[in-house]
Write a structure and sequence with these properties.
Helix content is 31%, strand content 17%. By secondary structure, the chain is α+β, with helices and mostly antiparallel strands.
Amino acid sequence: MNEIFTRTSIRKYEDRPVEKEKIEKILRAAMAAPSAGNQQPWEFYVVTNKKMIEELSNASQYAGCAKGAPVVLVPCYMSEGIKRPEYAQIDLSIACENILLEITALGLGGVWLGIAPVKEREEKVEKIIGLNKQGLHAFALIALGYPAEEKVQQDRYDESRIHYLD
């Protein structure tokens, strides 16, 4: 899986839309993620509205790069009506990694912008997208589009952090 070793955080995008077929593939990859007890505690909001994207780019001090993205995904997690709510954010983390890998596989670029577990950020995003479902919370923003920058992934392998127990 070459995408694991080539994926980087892309924060600049070309001014062109992302095809719906590619967005669907990205969401299928997200929903293929494993989850605790197969609870699948997720819903995904696909934002292409420029005004809303601009508002989302102000949801945290780290989200400014979302402003130039043609698409911002808002993965949301359930805290009610699921078997293991204590694992919901972990489940969403795995789904977001699948999203980022599929973005790379499709020749797109993207970046994960953290929202949870900071309640103030979650509430800002929920207000912007009109999320008023009981027990559903904004987890992250994933800005994506055709990359307008190139980056090479750094090698993060660190043998000193590996411990074999024979």
